[in-house]
């Protein structure tokens, strides 16, 4: 077994973890020094050993029963030992340190995670998704890089392959959105001299931004949602999604709304859009409030608590789970995400005769380009309505 062949002085050490299926996963454990920390319970300074694990995606049989399984064990162990030796030589040469700044020492996956850990904007969830998709891509297409890939191993061919992978697994604008965030991290790495040349330059993940890729809730389906209640339903999730259906606000904006955003005497809601804040003249949005919307908003717990959040929402993931449960209970079979509320709002008010410029203003669009896709959706609805009539035979 791996542990019997590991010397005390080895760094990293080849170790093993027994899995529930009877196999053993091989991994490397690096000793990266120590740090001193104050332990409040012991009321003294203690030494903490710093270690790092690298799973090799190599497996051996815990109790090989056939000559073939024993041969597979020997070959897998031999490969693991070679990898361990190579990593040790890299560590000794200063190419794979814990806090080293040399370009060749950096694992881009760790660099990406560090970027996320220090990221403060509200689209962090999408950037986390970009890292998860890139890791999944490497594990499937390039397993040699599954746990460690140097920044300069990112080349144009690899990025093109990643884009194709995203387009094969994502629907709607998902691939485009994820790749945009991935490029953001790569550009940051280039600007900080971690990558010599940006491999994403000139590569785009194209979408037809004049076509709505998400499902739309009709007025009848919205009525079905409003009439659906169930035990244990989160009232804030319910109120906030209905509010988005009737205002077109994005999730990243509704989650941050405070009572201070509401002008009760003039019945107005004003807020700065997270997505376009600082780089769009239409970043600030003002929405008129009717009785129903004011009822959804309610009032702060006390007049002095105007900075109180209006909708106390859990994570985006929890909100989506609750939304899907709610739509299923209502008998709606469409794939409804939170952003569908924004699309539904635009299509439904256009279908009821609203002016396209008015819709653009309510949605916070700086021009009509992004709003025009909703007019195409309305035209499609009208066409479907005509085609739903019995066939005319003369």
UniProtKB/TrEMBL annotation:
<dbReference type="GO" id="GO:0003677">
    <property type="term" value="F:DNA binding"/>
</dbReference>
<feature type="domain" description="Tyr recombinase">
    <location>
        <begin position="212"/>
        <end position="387"/>
    </location>
</feature>
<dbReference type="Pfam" id="PF00589">
    <property type="entry name" value="Phage_integrase"/>
</dbReference>
<dbReference type="InterPro" id="IPR011010">
    <property type="entry name" value="DNA_brk_join_enz"/>
</dbReference>
<keyword id="KW-0238">DNA-binding</keyword>
<dbReference type="InterPro" id="IPR050090">
    <property type="entry name" value="Tyrosine_recombinase_XerCD"/>
</dbReference>
<dbReference type="InterPro" id="IPR013762">
    <property type="entry name" value="Integrase-like_cat_sf"/>
</dbReference>
<dbReference type="InterPro" id="IPR010998">
    <property type="entry name" value="Integrase_recombinase_N"/>
</dbReference>
<dbReference type="GO" id="GO:0006310">
    <property type="term" value="P:DNA recombination"/>
</dbReference>
<dbReference type="GO" id="GO:0015074">
    <property type="term" value="P:DNA integration"/>
</dbReference>
<dbReference type="GO" id="GO:0007059">
    <property type="term" value="P:chromosome segregation"/>
</dbReference>
<dbReference type="Pfam" id="PF13102">
    <property type="entry name" value="Phage_int_SAM_5"/>
</dbReference>
<keyword id="KW-0159">Chromosome partition</keyword>
<protein>
    <submittedName>
        <fullName>Site-specific integrase</fullName>
    </submittedName>
</protein>
<keyword id="KW-0233">DNA recombination</keyword>
<dbReference type="InterPro" id="IPR025269">
    <property type="entry name" value="SAM-like_dom"/>
</dbReference>
<dbReference type="InterPro" id="IPR002104">
    <property type="entry name" value="Integrase_catalytic"/>
</dbReference>
């Amino acid at each position: 077994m791996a542990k019997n062949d590991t010397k005390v002085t080895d760094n990293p050490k080849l170790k093993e973890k027994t899995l529930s299926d009877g196999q053993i996963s091989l991994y490397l454990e690096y000793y990266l020094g120590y740090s001193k920390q104050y332990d409040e319970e012991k009321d003294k300074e203690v030494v903490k050993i710093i270690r790092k694990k690298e799973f090799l995606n190599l497996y051996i049989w815990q109790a090989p029963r056939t000559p073939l399984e024993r041969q597979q064990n020997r070959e897998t162990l031999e490969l693991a030992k070679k990898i361990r030796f190579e990593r040790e030589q890299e560590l000794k040469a200063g190419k794979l340190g814990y806090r080293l700044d040399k370009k060749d020492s950096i694992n881009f996956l760790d660099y990406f995670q560090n970027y996320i850990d220090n990221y403060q904007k509200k689209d962090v969830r999408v950037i986390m998704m970009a890292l998860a998709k890139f890791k999944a891509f490497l594990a499937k297409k390039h397993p040699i890089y599954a746990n460690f890939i140097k920044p300069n191993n990112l080349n144009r061919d690899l990025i093109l392959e990643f884009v194709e992978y995203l387009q094969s697994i994502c629907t709607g604008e998902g691939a485009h959105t994820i790749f945009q965030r991935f490029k953001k991290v790569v550009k940051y790495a280039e600007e900080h001299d971690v990558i010599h040349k940006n491999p994403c330059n000139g590569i785009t993940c194209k979408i037809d931004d004049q076509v709505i890729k998400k499902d739309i809730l009709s007025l009848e389906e919205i009525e079905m949602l409003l009439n659906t209640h169930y035990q244990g339903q989160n009232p804030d999730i319910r109120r906030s999604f209905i509010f988005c259906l009737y205002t077109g606000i994005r999730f990243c904006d509704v989650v941050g709304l405070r009572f201070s955003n509401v002008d009760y005497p003039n019945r107005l809601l004003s807020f700065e859009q997270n997505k376009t804040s600082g780089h769009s003249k239409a970043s600030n949005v003002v929405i008129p409030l009717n009785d129903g919307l004011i009822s959804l908003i309610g009032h702060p717990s006390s007049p002095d608590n105007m900075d109180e959040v209006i909708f106390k929402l859990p994570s985006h993931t929890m909100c989506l789970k609750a939304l899907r449960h709610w739509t299923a209970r209502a008998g709606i079979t469409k794939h409804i995400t939170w952003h569908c509320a924004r699309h539904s709002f635009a299509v439904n008010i256009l279908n009821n005769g609203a002016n396209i410029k008015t819709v653009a203003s309510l949605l916070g669009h700086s021009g009509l380009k992004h709003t025009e896709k909703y007019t195409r959706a309305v035209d499609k609805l009208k066409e479907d309505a005509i085609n739903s009539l019995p066939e005319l035979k003369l």
